[in-house]
Write a structure and sequence with these properties.
Largest sheet: 6 strands, parallel
CATH topology of the largest domain: Rossmann fold
CATH superfamily of the largest domain: Crotonobetainyl-coa:carnitine coa-transferase, domain 1
CATH architecture of the largest domain: 3-Layer(aba) Sandwich
Strand content: 5-15%
Number of domains: 2
CATH class of the largest domain: Alpha Beta
Helix content: 40-55%
């Protein structure tokens, strides 16, 4: 048993934010019917290289646990099919520009009339309201306009985006949470509702203490590289053979660190004796720390600091973390059978539930792989009727 068994989701989203959201829900047992255009499907099917025998690595990474139904929403019969699906489903997810689905006859109020219990999740760049609502949403734009890029990178470098598309991914996570909240509320009210998630809002939510610094001082925090605005030392240092992250978050840990390396005079130095004094004197402490860390290899540091109980970590490549024994033990890399590729590797389920765990059960689908199955088993079409719909370009 999985937590969302019995929940059916019509997924009209594409690219990343929406598909990431539906993937999270599919991991937990929801039936995800991914609606794709018959001609080319989700845009990310063509994003590459790399490809694996014609299948996009990008698409494969975020579309597991879904069924693909091709549907031409510009055709009258295609709209009829979608209307029937909506009547049999619990959630609709879309990430078109605001107003697009309404013009096709499937905006929130229109869908609500079809199925009052439907939870309607809209993910957009700037939300369904406000002066920027009509603008298209892209991850890079949201990171820039949302303030994240202004605090990412080194002081002498340009604004820098995060290495992963955090605006898209955060919007997908927030949308999944919103859908779950709306489903929970429906248990009490019997009614669905609109879940309105914007990428820009998500980036502002991620600012957390950076926004707090502005609220407290009236000044925008700037780029600090890998340093922390309010904790020192808390950054990346170059070791004898690589890099190491040190996160000495309080004075007790600082004293422990100084004792472990035989430099207790540093913890007795009034410039470095408290959390706030280390922040105020970070420019004096930085070269001292640089020289200390450069004396040992990364492995030597990790072994020393683990014995001492001081938090530290290596800087792994994507390959190193994907092959790491901790990640494998946590089943965060899994293999799943694929209809044409044999097996494909995908990331695992990050939420571990003790009684009703999620799982990667279905490989990312081929375009239209489940069209006949859905039309015949769910909507009651005959084999001949499905063939006619294909011939007419409806599916």
């Amino acid at each position: 048993m999985k937590p969302l068994d019995g929940i059916r989701i019509v997924d009209l989203s594409r690219i990343l934010a929406g598909p990431y959201c539906s993937m999270l829900l599919g991991d937990m047992g929801a039936e995800i019917i991914k609606i794709e255009s018959p001609d080319h499907g989700d845009d990310t099917r063509g994003w590459g290289p790399p490809f694996i025998d014609g299948e996009s690595a990008y698409f494969l990474s975020i579309n597991r646990n879904k069924k693909s139904l091709t549907l031409n929403l510009k055709a009258g019969q295609g709209k009829d099919l979608l209307t029937r699906l909506i009547g049999l489903s619990d959630v609709l997810i879309e990430n078109f520009r605001p107003g697009t689905l309404g013009r096709l006859g499937f905006g929130y109020e229109q869908v609500r009339a079809m199925n009052p219990r439907m939870v309607f999740a809209s993910i957009s760049g700037f939300g369904q309201t406000g002066p920027l609502a009509g603008r298209p949403g892209y991850d890079l734009i949201a990171q820039g306009e949302g303030g994240i890029m202004s605090v990412t990178g080194f002081p002498d470098g340009p604004p820098t985006k995060a290495g992963t598309p955090i605006a898209d991914i955060a919007a997908g996570i927030f949308a999944a949470q919103g859908i779950l909240l709306a489903l929970y509320a429906r248990e009490r009210t019997g009614r669905g509702q609109l879940v309105d998630v914007s990428m820009l809002d998500g980036q502002v939510a991620l600012l957390t203490f950076q926004a707090g610094i502005y609220f407290a001082t009236g000044e925008s925090p700037g780029r600090m590289g890998n340093q922390h605005p309010t904790i020192v030392p808390y950054e990346t240092f170059r070791s004898k053979d690589g890099y190491i992250n040190l996160t000495i978050g309080n004075t007790n840990l600082w004293r422990t660190f100084c004792k472990a390396i035989g430099r207790e005079e540093l913890s007795a130095d009034p410039r470095f004796g408290t959390e706030s004094s280390r922040v105020e004197n970070r420019n004096a402490l930085k070269p001292i720390m640089d020289a200390i860390v450069a004396e040992r290899t990364t492995r030597q540091w990790l072994e020393l600091l683990e014995r001492a109980g001081v938090p530290a970590g290596s800087v792994n490549s994507v390959a190193e973390i994907c092959e790491h024994p901790q990640i494998r033990a946590r089943e965060m890399v899994v293999e799943v059978p694929h209809p044409t590729l044999g097996f494909v590797k995908v990331s695992g389920v990050p939420i571990k539930l003790s009684d009703t765990p999620g799982a990667v059960s279905i490989a990312p689908p081929l375009l239209g792989q489940h069209t006949a199955e859905i039309l015949e088993s769910l909507l009651g079409y005959s084999v001949e009727e499905v063939a006619e719909l294909r011939k007419a370009g409806v599916v």
